[in-house]
Amino acid sequence: MKKLLTIILVGVVLSSCTEIVFEEAQPAGAKALKEIPKEFHGKFGLVILNEESIMEITANSITNDDGMAYLSDSLIIKKLDNRYVLSRKQLEGEGDKYGTWQTYVLEDKGCGFVKATSFFINSDSYTEQFTQLYPDNTFIDEGQNKTIIIKPTADQFKSLVADDSVTVSMILERLN
After folding, report:
1. Is 146 helix (H, G, I), strand (E, B) or coil?
2. In this structure, are residues 117 and 107 in contact, taking their beta carbons and an 8 Å threshold?
3. What pTM was estimated for this model as a whole?
4. Average per-residue pLDDT in the chain?
């Protein structure tokens, strides 16, 4: 899981984007599932910047090159309409980002493909507009690494998922 996140973040940092993280697992108020749905079980591959990564998903865990992460208090999956939202609590480091949630929307696209969407803003001008939409935010500026921490309502999160200005998607391909 960590390698997947690193690959995503490398691509984002290279383009000088602002990461969006959340104060709580998303969507707010939705009940956490006890298992990852069957349509996401299996081995998946993805290639970013000519590097291939393999991920295996089971009913209660995600494994990649960095090891295994189990569904727990710090890895939660929730349902959002016909999609699922995987939230991972950041438990490393210090400062404002510690304890926030990186969030990915998973959608089964059929034919062995899963769309995974994360949240980044790639335009400095939109960052200002975005912070006005979520006035109770924390903005962290560490040079090229910028982060906005927000606490959206469930309806605001749905709007966020639909906003192409703040989402980055990749396709995972089933290998088995």
Report:
1. strand
2. yes
3. 0.86
4. 88
